[in-house]
Structures are given as C-alpha cells and as structure tokens.
Amino acid sequence: MKRINRTVGLACALAVAGALLAGCGPTDGTKDGRGTVAGMDMQGAAERADAMFYATVGAIKPDIEWVHDTTTTGSCDLTRYWTVMTVVSEQRRGNFLGVVENFWKASGYQIKTVNPDKDMPEIVATSPDGFGIMVLFGHQGQAFFEVTSPCVKNSKVAAPTKAATGPTYEGETAIPTPNVRSDFWSAETPVPGSTPAP
User: Fold this and answer.
1) CA of 179: how far to CAs of 80, 144, 154, 166, in Å?
2) 3-class secondary structure for 157-192?
3) Rounded distance, CA 197 to CA 105, Å?
4) Alpha carbons 133 and 126: distance in angstroms, whole number
5) Is 70:76 a contact under the CB 8 Å cutoff?
6) Beta bridge mates, 139
7) What is the pTM for the complete model shown?
8) Is 50 exceeded by the pLDDT of residue 8?
9) C-alpha R_g of the chain
C-alpha cells in the first residue's frame, strides 16, 4: 500500500523534518562504540516507535481514527508512519496540535520545531532516549505522524501488532484522504472559550 500523494511543499517539509529527526540521537551515554543504541535493534526501535505513537494518540480526546502507514529503514535507523483518517478542520488544527505538543512536553520530549503554517503546520520533537517524533498536516488537511529512531543494530522488522482504529485499506493502492467525521475535530468553528495553538 502506497502512502497518499502529498504536495511538493509537504515533501520539502518532510525532507527538512526527516533530517532533523535522523540527526537526533541519545545524549545520555546509551550508544555503544559503533554509534548505535546499546542493546537495541530495529525491531526494538519499531516497538519503541509504536509505543510513542500509541501514547500520543491516546492523549487526543475525543478519539481519532488512524491507520498504520509504511515502515522505512536506513543504514542503521528506522521510521514508522501513521495516517489520521479523522477530518480535522482548519479551525480545530491548532487545538489538535496543542494537545499533542502539551503531551510531548509532559512526557519529557524536547520540542525542536513548531511550524505554524496555516495549511501545513507541523511539530517536531525528540524523546529523552533520542527518538524523533513529528506530527504534520498535509494534502487536504490530513494529519500524519512519524517516529524515527536513532542508530540501532540492523535486524528484521515485523509489522505493528496493534490493530488500527480505522480500516486498513488492504488491497488499495493508496490510503485515502481523511473521511471520518468527528463532532468535535471536524467542526468548522473554533473551540468555545479557547485560543488555538500553535
């Protein structure tokens, strides 16, 4: 299954954010002599990435629907991707991003970049153990998450074991644009009494 087509601007944003994420490594002495995270292979990194994502979306209330996207591997790192199927209106994107950013800060993540672009906002952060995590909005306002590991030992990587909250789109050539309506997240009015962020 291919990831949904994105605009050139989003591709550039991903390239920049990817470079930021790929450069994020632990600074607490957990690397071995080869620069990899001691005791962790790509499967372990994938499981850690999954846990970071599940914890993040678990903090988003009301719940959203999401699906697993691709997994990519580099020479010694790994990136997991997820696509949000819930329609998040332009008026509610700031609130959505604010919830995510607050959760990441509370989890001890360092916020590296906040891009408040009206059409394609994004937040990039780093966990205490050197994993990069990003949320961004792309084509037709679809939200995407990705987590990139620091350098780890090469290994086989299994698919995520947790079921997605939305359809899997098995056999489809691409994940469609957001198609799940939410009384809260899809509402085309600001949240009453709140100041959207960022």
Assistant:
1) 22, 14, 37, 10
2) CCCCCCCCCCCCCCCCCECCCCCECCCCCCCCCCCC
3) 14
4) 6
5) no
6) none
7) 0.82
8) no
9) 16
Q: Is 177 exposed, middle or buried (0-12, 13-18, 19+ CB in 10 A)?
A: middle
Q: Please state, in angstroms and rounded to a whole number, the distance separating the CA atoms of residues 98 and 103.
A: 8
Token representation of residue 109: 């993540």
Pairing of strands 78-84, 143-148: antiparallel
Q: Quick check: helix, strand or coil at residue 8?
A: helix
Gap between the terminal Cα atoms of the chain? 32
Mean pLDDT of 93-114: 97
Whether 16 shows a pLDDT value over 60: the answer reads: no
Residue 16's SS3 state is helix
pLDDT of residue 169: 85
pLDDT one-digit tens code per residue, 60-94:
999 999 999 999 999 999 999 999 999 999 999 99
Of 146, 147, 139, 148, the C-alpha closest to 175 is: 139
Q: Which residue reads 């009494």 in tokens? A: 193
- What per-residue confidence (pLDDT) applies to 1? 46
